[in-house]
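Table S2 (continued). Query chain:
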Amino acid sequence: MADSDLKQKTISGMLWSGIGRIGTVGISFISNIVLARLLMPDDFGCIGMLYVFIAISSIFISGGLGQALIQKKEPTHIDYTTVFYWNLVMSVIFYIILFFSAPAIARFYNIPLLKDVLRVQSLVLFIQSFAIVQSNQLQKQLRFKELSVRNIVSTLCGVIVAIIMAFMGYGVWSLVASALVTALVSVALLWKMSTWRPSLEFSFQSLKELFSFGGLMLLSSLVETIYTNLQSLIIGKFYSAKDLGYFTQAKKLEEVPTNSLSAIVNEVSFPVFSALQDDKEKLLAGVRKNIKAITYLNFPLMVLMMVIAHPLITLLYGAKWETAAPYFQILCVSSMIYTLNTLNTNVIKSLGKSTIYFIIQLTKRLIGIGLIVAGFQFGIYGLLWAIASVGYISFIINAIVNGKLIKYGLFKQIKDVGVCYLCVAMIGIGLYVLGLHIPWHPYWVMLIQIILFVALYWLASVFFKMEGYLTYKEIILSKIKK
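Corresponding output:
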């Protein structure tokens, strides 16, 4: 692929991926506001308790083969067909495992309802197995327009079903139905958009070759998933469904900007970095530009949300959710660094360094699990601060590794993003303290803090000539001139 063609497809991919992500997150965000007012914290807590089992099963079903297909320069039809049947068979196996494990899982949490909920919700694994290959093909081809349409439409259908059922009083079942409908619509749209169809072929040689990369991706994803969901497992087991509900809602709100940005970065940067894997200079230039541009948006968003956390939570979800505000603030501290970690790990994957990737992911998550277990001893806030600290430790490890791989190490990355980080931190602290001393209604104070934050950040961007600011300014001016 020519450089100009790749650049054009990358820009188009970023645009459509952004549209799809913003649309999907926007729909989910609005529906979550509605559902939070219709359902109780316990309902969200029940789904949160089961998510770890669904997520781990999904990792085994994919087997890391989806990422292997993207990383491989020229996958064949037999590669795709082999992965398709692998996904299908594994989804059946894991559905059966979860079906018969459901009573034990319900006893573990001491909530009998979870048995039936898990047995129905696990059907999503079988449904999603029909979409993995087509989704990976479109992603590898940088056809993000189709993927974005699929995501928006399927999410909207699931949300409509959830809200209708919540109004009718179905409680937690409205969330289960939403997941199933979203998966069904997503699969149907993908099969319509993609011309690829499986043939009756399966190659153990192809499976073996893909597993040479994908197998370690599977193990890496498994470690990551266990680590991520260990938090919910501990809260659900040792606290209550209500506490887990608060945590789940805080995490969902924090993930609105974080996952939107990181998903766009992950969806587009991995195939693009993979295409540049043989040209280290271009790869390095692309990584640096991505990091500066993404952190310019991510850092201020996270800090601003920390500043306005309490009025924001009550405005969106109602007073019954205010307990979630401090959870939300601590999670935002960790999320400031999340997109940096996404970009750094994508570099390692795009270079085909699956062994290195697995080792560093395992190292980071073992450290994380140790910190979480230690933090848990100091209550739920100790647990949350342990989670926050893991993100920064992960960044240090990722940056050191990329210093060896592409000569873009820890100090160079800190130099590139340090000014932006310090600026938003100082602005955020100042405005938070100011808000404590303004004796007005919290919503008016929140509005003032938002306006001042945007103004001060813009002034700092101009004064320090932040590269992220200059990049977006250039893009906007070029669009206006057209």
